[in-house]
């Protein structure tokens, strides 16, 4: 058992009370004197040239203060340096239903909404592309003129010798898999409040301050600077509480820039909050992905080669697309040992909202295909699905064929744990009619080793300041979005400094106060901001130690910081304790989360200790010179006072940049995929399938996740459970359904995010592989588990009723169609029925399968019935 | 539209407000009374983030006209805290990871408050049924069950509201 006092303990989030009382402020909860409400006019057409926009009637409406259009801020931007293809407000063209045209800033939302109806727009309507494979054939009316065939980017990677690998295979399986589009649906709709300082004398516009629901304040500051032609130093971005991100707030969303443009023109603060429908249009979710996958294995289950051709329906703008398509290929590696790999990835533009980064960025859909196909191979070779995975484990430390460095690798233990807990050996295949178990694995990066704005500068920097009364303030650019970033930061600082957690305050995500951090995405915060915090705290600790050592007549290295005390190593046992202090031998209270008497008492002691401390310090200062006998121990406060006395101030800085060895290969596209550490996950899902209705029910998921070290087990479990649950949503119910570029389900009910009623029990099992470079050995825990859930469910459906589903989500229609095909005893590749190259044949708006002449009777008023 | 004076009783205090008859309770609470704990998460009464108690019954403030609540007792998340301390359910949600991003949390707390008021010892089935009126996107709900069980236990031990054991952390 490792000897930590704060790290590894189930500690409630430090901001929990702000959330449970409603006192915490999210962006939409904020207001300023003179606040205007902004509303955005969106395009009703999927693809059209703008002939003319007339805002004059809107401007005349009572209550309207300003109307802005593309001409007010014509600079292009985009989250990737290679993808500056967006305008906050359209200049000449709209590219999806929901594209942004104009914004009205008015005294209240009602006036703003009325004014939107008075803006006249003339369009030349252009042919639109909705299907990626069709779009790739386009010769004219391109979505972006500089992208021939509407191809955003394609990559073709060959590692090893795939042809030779397939020749060595005893069994080769090929298939097409489709994972339909899903979105983040974070509970908080995007919101931004922007205001400019006005010079009191000249009235000129000064600095810009923006409060926004963002995962990366730094990127927002950067893009605002580009679009508004302001130096970054003239822009302050503050992130209040954020109501969930999942990647949807990891890039700059149009409203964040539009609010600033409107505030500049109106010369008053402007707040824009999206409706749920607008959130769906802003989207940036996981693209619909078509995966043609071929896997070869020897008869004992050793993988010999993998070939993947992946097409992503990226929507109308680049967004994170280039990164997504690269992740899809790169993360075929680093889970199993695969010697020969071929990857062809196509990121295609279509006239739909842009797709971007979503939890498990790039890896999820391909992992669904891969783990499903691995199960098919296991079935063909008559191998246990757990066994075939054990056959292909990496032997770390290793560098994969595509250049990913793997150090800590808890996958074998993850597989062991889920196999054991789920009763896999005894229960698999023996659960009776319509019920089954399925197993799958996944992994994910602990932050990208290369930042999207390429540089060798640190990815995270943290400052720490300690005040005279022992109050520790950590300044970090990392963004708390509900995952526990602030709590993690304070735990690490408290652990290193050996002080009470209640001493630590976190000031986060305010570009004026906190050093640059590239934010909360790609699961980078614990690893990178955590390491930066660790280093900053160690620097401060060194300063305290050098001063305290003088007082205690020993070398700084002999000092131990723990339990709010600084004591000499040799005096450890003799240290008297303040009443209520947790004892040094304090056994970790297994599973007793912070709700016990014990904890309540320590907390009171800390308050009492403070008061005492102040008195103590007063008398200390008097007695300091008299008391020359070296001490055995000092309280944290005494040590801090001594250090400030000695050094003049007590501050420290730490930063983190991924090591060169972890930054990947040299080929084109090698920058995406490398990470200083990977998390690993193995899952078993138990499902039942109702063969009458096609309804799939997930009863339980056992999810073992290797997070390196669980800095806060309750938070880790929460992240793992949340990931599994979100994966289950994508597996069973969630799907964005499009018809002619129009989103048919732009609400939480129709999108069908699972409610408590259909959510399974998830048993999260923490596996700690203790990474050599992670802070206290920690790695990521918030995304990796998601990718395993979809194939685990798919494989369980196969175990239950013997059908292999190739298209997610596994809706009742798809399950029934597969069951029918199985009964008719004719092989039907499900994806045949939804071949996107022939969408008119079988496919109805991407959702329900309608077989020719067998589909549901259409309503007599339905226009499509006439066809 | 002309405004009318409406007297709303919110969290045991009477407020006289000049509002339009078409204004929703949610907007009135958030904009007129600055009670921003109740959230708007959707356009179609599907998410439950705006749940408040009206005469003790959980209602969606986003689909309720403010004027129709005159003479009724409205309780929002801001009125849940007891004697300056967290209610047992609030503390339990924090301790057990029932709240991650926290945006849905006020709505859930209101729903659970009603559940525990009507069913002091709810079964897991009953809890699921009650929680299904609200959506959460972070937690997968699992840790909420543990939080609710812990709150029920705490209530039974009479911990709630007891000054000595006021919720806090190390």
Beta-strand percentage range of chain A? 15-25%
Strand order across the largest sheet of chain A: 3-5-1-12-9-10-11
Helical segment tally of chain B? 5
In helices, the fraction of residues of chain A equals: 25-40%
Gyration radius from CA atoms of chain B, angstroms: 16 Å
Report the mean per-residue pLDDT of chain A as an integer.
Answer: 90
CATH superfamily assignment of the largest domain in chain B? [2Fe-2S]-binding domain
- Structural class estimated from helices and strands of chain A: alpha+beta
Q: What spatial form of chain A do the alpha-carbon principal axes imply?
A: globular
CATH class of the largest domain in chain A, anyone?
Answer: Alpha Beta
Written account of the structure:
The complex is a heterodimer of chains A (867) and B (170). Chain A is an alpha+beta fold and 867 residues long. Chain A has 3 domains: 31-126 and 188-243 and 249-282, Alpha-Beta Complex (Aldehyde Oxidoreductase, domain 3), CATH 3.90.1170.50; 150-183 and 284-451 and 663-808, Aldehyde oxidase/xanthine dehydrogenase, molybdopterin binding domain (Aldehyde Oxidoreductase, domain 4, 2-Layer Sandwich); 457-585 and 592-656, Aldehyde Oxidoreductase, domain 4, CATH 3.30.365.10. Chain A is built from 22 helices and 31 strands. In chain A, strands 3-5-1-12-9-10-11 form a 7-stranded mixed sheet, sandwiched between helices. In chain A, helix 10 packs across helix 11 and helix 14 packs parallel to helix 15 (525-552). Chain A starts with 15 loop residues before the first helix and ends in a 25-residue tail after the last helix. In chain B, helix 2 packs across helix 5 (142-156). Chain B folds into 2 domains: 3-77, Roll (Ubiquitin-like (UB roll)), CATH 3.10.20; 88-165, [2Fe-2S]-binding domain (DNA polymerase, domain 1, Orthogonal Bundle), CATH 1.10.150. In chain B, 31% of the residues lie in helices and 16% in strands. Chain B starts with a strand and ends in a 14-residue tail after the last helix. The chains are: A alpha+beta (867), B alpha+beta (170). Chains A and B meet through helix 1, helix 16 and helix 18 of A and helix 2, helix 3, helix 4 and helix 5 of B.
């Amino acid at each position: 058992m490792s000897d930590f006092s704060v790290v590894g303990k189930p500690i409630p989030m430090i901001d929990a009370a702000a959330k449970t009382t409603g006192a915490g402020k999210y962006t939409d909860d904020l207001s300023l004197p003179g606040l205007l409400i902004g509303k955005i006019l969106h395009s009703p057409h999927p693809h059209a040239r703008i002939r003319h926009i007339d805002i004059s009637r809107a401007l005349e409406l009572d209550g309207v203060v300003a109307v802005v259009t593309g001409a007010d801020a014509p600079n292009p931007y985009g989250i990737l340096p290679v993808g500056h293809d967006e305008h906050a407000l359209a200049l000449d063209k709209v590219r999806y239903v929901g594209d942004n045209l104009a914004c009205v800033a008015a005294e209240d939302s009602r006036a703003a909404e009325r004014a939107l109806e008075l803006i006249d727009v003339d369009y030349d309507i252009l042919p639109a592309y909705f299907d990626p494979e069709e779009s790739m054939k386009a010769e004219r009316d391109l979505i972006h003129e500089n992208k021939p065939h509407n191809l955003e980017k394609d990559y073709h990677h060959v590692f090893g010798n795939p042809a030779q690998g397939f020749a060595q295979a005893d069994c080769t399986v090929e298939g097409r898999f489709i994972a339909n589009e899903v979105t983040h649906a974070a509970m908080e709709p995007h919101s931004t409040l922007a205001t400019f300082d006005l010079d009191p004398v000249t009235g000129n516009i000064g600095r810009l301050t923006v409060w926004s629901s963002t995962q990366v304040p730094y990127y927002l500051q950067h893009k605002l600077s580009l679009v508004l032609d302001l130096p970054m130093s003239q822009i302050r971005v503050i992130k209040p509480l954020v109501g969930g991100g999942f990647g949807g707030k990891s890039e700059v969303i149009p409203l964040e820039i539009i609010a600033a443009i409107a505030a500049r023109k109106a010369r008053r603060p402007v707040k824009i909050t999206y409706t749920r429908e607008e959130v769906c249009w802003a989207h940036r979710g996981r693209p619909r992905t078509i995966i043609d996958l071929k896997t070869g294995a020897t008869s004992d289950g050793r993988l010999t080669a993998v070939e993947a051709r992946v097409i992503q329906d990226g929507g109308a703008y680049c967004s994170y697309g280039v990164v997504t398509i690269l992740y899809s290929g790169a993360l075929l590696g680093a889970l199993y040992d695969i010697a020969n790999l071929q990857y062809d990835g196509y990121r295609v533009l279509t006239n739909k909202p842009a797709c971007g980064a979503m939890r498990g960025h790039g890896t999820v859909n391909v992992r669904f295909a891969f783990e499903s196909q691995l199960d098919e191979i296991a079935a063909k070779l008559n191998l246990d699905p757990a066994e075939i995975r054990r056959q292909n484990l990496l032997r770390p430390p290793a560098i994969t064929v595509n250049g990913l460095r793997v150090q800590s690798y808890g996958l074998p233990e993850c597989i062991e744990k889920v196999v054991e807990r789920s009763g896999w050996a005894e229960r698999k295949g023996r659960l009776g009619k319509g019920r089954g178990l399925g197993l799958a694995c996944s992994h994910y990066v602990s932050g990208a080793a290369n930042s999207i704005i390429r540089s060798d500068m640190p990815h995270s920097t943290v400052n720490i300041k300690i005040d005279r009364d022992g109050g520790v303030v950590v300044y970090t650019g990392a963004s708390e979005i509900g995952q526990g970033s602030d709590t993690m930061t304070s735990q690490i600082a408290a652990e290193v400094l050996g002080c009470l957690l209640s001493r630590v305050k976190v000031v986060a995500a305010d570009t004026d106060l906190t050093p640059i951090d590239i934010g909360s995405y790609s699961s980078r915060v614990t690893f990178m901001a955590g390491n930066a915090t660790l280093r900053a705290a160690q620097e401060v600790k060194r300063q305290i130690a050098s001063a305290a050592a003088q007082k205690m007549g020993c070398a700084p290295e002999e000092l131990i910081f723990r339990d709010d005390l600084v004591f000499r190593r040799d005096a450890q046992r003799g240290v008297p304790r303040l009443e209520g202090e947790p004892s040094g031998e304090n056994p970790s209270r297994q599973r007793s989360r912070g709700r016990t008497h014990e904890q309540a008492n320590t907390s009171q002691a800390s308050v009492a200790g403070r008061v005492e401390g102040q008195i103590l310090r007063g008398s200390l200062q008097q007695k300091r010179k008299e008391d020359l006998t070296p001490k055995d121990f000092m309280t944290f406060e005494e040590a801090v006072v001594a250090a400030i006395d000695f050094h003049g101030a007590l501050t420290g800085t730490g930063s983190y940049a991924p090591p060169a060895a972890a930054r990947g290969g040299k080929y084109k596209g090698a920058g995406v995929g490398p990470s200083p550490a990977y998390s690993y996950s193995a899952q078993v899902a138990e499902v039942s399938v109702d063969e009458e209705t096609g309804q799939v029910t997930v009863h339980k998921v056992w999810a073992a996740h290797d997070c390196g070290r669980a800095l806060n087990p309750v938070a880790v479990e929460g992240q793992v459970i949340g990931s599994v649950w979100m994966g289950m949503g994508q597996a069973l119910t969630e799907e964005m359904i499009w018809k002619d570029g129009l989103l048919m389900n732009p609400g939480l009910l129709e999108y069908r995010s699972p409610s408590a009623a259909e959510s399974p029990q998830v048993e999260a099992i923490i596996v700690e592989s203790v990474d050599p470079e992670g802070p206290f050995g920690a790695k990521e825990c918030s995304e990796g588990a998601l990718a395993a859930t979809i194939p685990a469910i798919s494989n369980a459906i196969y175990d239950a009723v013997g059908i292999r589903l190739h298209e997610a989500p596994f809706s009742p229609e798809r399950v029934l169609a597969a069951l029918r095909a199985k009964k008719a005893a004719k092989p039907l590749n499900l994806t045949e029925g939804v071949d996107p190259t022939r969408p008119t044949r079988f496919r109805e708006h991407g959702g329900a399968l309608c077989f020719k002449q067998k589909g549901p009777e259409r309503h007599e008023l339905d226009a499509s019935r006439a066809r | 539209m002309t405004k009318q004076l409406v007297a709303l009783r919110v969290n045991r205090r009477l407020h006289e407000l000049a509002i339009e008859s078409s204004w929703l309770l949610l907007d009135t609470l958030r904009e007129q009374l600055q009670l921003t704990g109740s959230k708007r998460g959707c356009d179609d009464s599907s998410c439950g983030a705006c749940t408040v108690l009206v005469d003790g019954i959980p209602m969606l403030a986003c689909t309720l006209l403010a004027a129709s609540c005159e003479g009724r007792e409205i309780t929002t998340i801001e009125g849940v805290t007891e004697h300056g301390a967290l209610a047992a359910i609030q503390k339990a949600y924090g301790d057990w990871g029932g709240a991650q991003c926290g945006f849905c949390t006020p709505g859930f707390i209101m729903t659970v408050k009603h559940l525990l008021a009507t069913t002091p010892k709810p079964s897991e089935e009953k809890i699921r049924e009650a929680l299904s009126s609200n959506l959460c996107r972070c937690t997968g709900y699992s840790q909420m069950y543990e939080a609710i069980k812990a709150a029920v236990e705490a209530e039974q031990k009479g911990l709630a509201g007891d000054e000595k054991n006021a919720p806090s952390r190390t």
